[in-house]
Design brief:
heterodimer, A: alpha+beta, 5-stranded antiparallel sheet, globular, B: 126 residues, alpha/beta, Transcription Regulator spoIIAA, 6-stranded mixed sheet, 28% helix
């Protein structure tokens, strides 16, 4: 992962871990603490921690290998925050993710979130498919999904 | 024990408990709900809650989230699934779900009011 375009004044943390569910809460707490010293807006920090947690949950659920990777970059001058979560997934998981992303990335974010909630309520497969819609609505950020071979990169930028 | 005879859930950092609240019911959520599939525990809990409330003709359930630090999207799904059960009831059997939330917890401020839109008129968010 490249951080070559990081300015000397940008702060960032980068974590790589074997995807285990029990680590997510710990990483969420760590990110909250990191952001508390990096930015003033506590509400924004909380939203980022939530988004990171949801993205990590997706990565852990769908990763086909170890080495889930999260990068959080903070620009102190603008308080813009970028999160990037990277993992490897099989084609079926990638297809599912792309279909969900296409569905939730257009239209009014509140309407999309409520629609996804109603659909989730009808699911009986133990999955919600609600995380990305939640992130988009609650953060108001710019959510992107990129696939390179079997590597999935999900990023969000919050200004 | 509450009048619905439903046991408390206490798993990992999640606690969900029912209390009698005058003639109504309060369900209180505490801790963090962030396990992989909270529905495994919450779905049967909400089913019993819903059936008991309907059978005893209880008019209102207060859902108190004030002490819930985190709820993942799978947990939101479980709450939404419970609320959507109200659409299966005829109007005269519907009960109110009054949601109490903590304005100091950011995800609560943004996510919990959206539950209003699932079944308009029966979910009140305070």
């Amino acid at each position: 992962m490249s951080v070559n375009n990081t300015s000397m004044t940008d702060g960032y943390i980068e974590l790589k871990f074997g995807p285990r569910w029990k680590y997510i809460a710990c990483v969420r707490g760590f990110i909250q603490n990191f952001l508390a010293i990096s930015i003033v807006d506590q509400s924004k920090a909380d939203k980022i921690a939530m988004a990171a947690s949801e993205l990590l949950e997706n990565a852990v659920k769908y990763a086909s290998r170890d080495d889930t990777h999260i990068l959080i970059k903070v620009s102190p001058a603008t308080e813009e925050i970028k999160i990037l979560v990277v993992n490897t997934a099989n084609q079926e998981s990638i297809d599912t993710l792309l279909a969900i992303y296409k569905k939730i990335s257009e239209g009014d974010s509140l309407k999309v979130y409520v629609t996804q909630m109603k659909e989730a309520a009808l699911r009986s497969d133990g999955k919600s498919h609600l995380g990305l819609a939640r992130i988009r609505y609650e953060t108001g950020g710019d959510l992107k999904v990129d696939i390179k071979n079997n590597e999935v990169q999900v990023s969000i930028a919050i200004g | 024990m509450n009048r619905l005879n439903i046991e408390k859930i206490h798993e990992d950092r999640m606690e969900v408990e029912i209390f009698d609240d005058d003639s109504n019911i309060c369900v209180k959520f505490k801790g963090d709900i962030d396990m992989e599939d909270p529905g495994v525990l919450l779905d049967p809990f909400f089913n019993k809650l819903h059936e008991g409330v309907v059978a005893q003709k209880i008019k209102e359930v207060r859902a108190d989230f004030n002490e819930l630090n985190f709820l993942n999207s799978s947990g939101i799904k479980a709450v939404a699934k419970w609320i959507m059960k109200l659409t299966e009831l005829e109007d005269d059997r519907k009960y109110i779900i009054r949601i109490l939330y903590n304005r100091d917890i950011t995800w609560q401020v943004t996510s919990l009011p959206t539950l209003n839109f699932l079944v308009p008129g029966v979910v009140k968010v305070e």
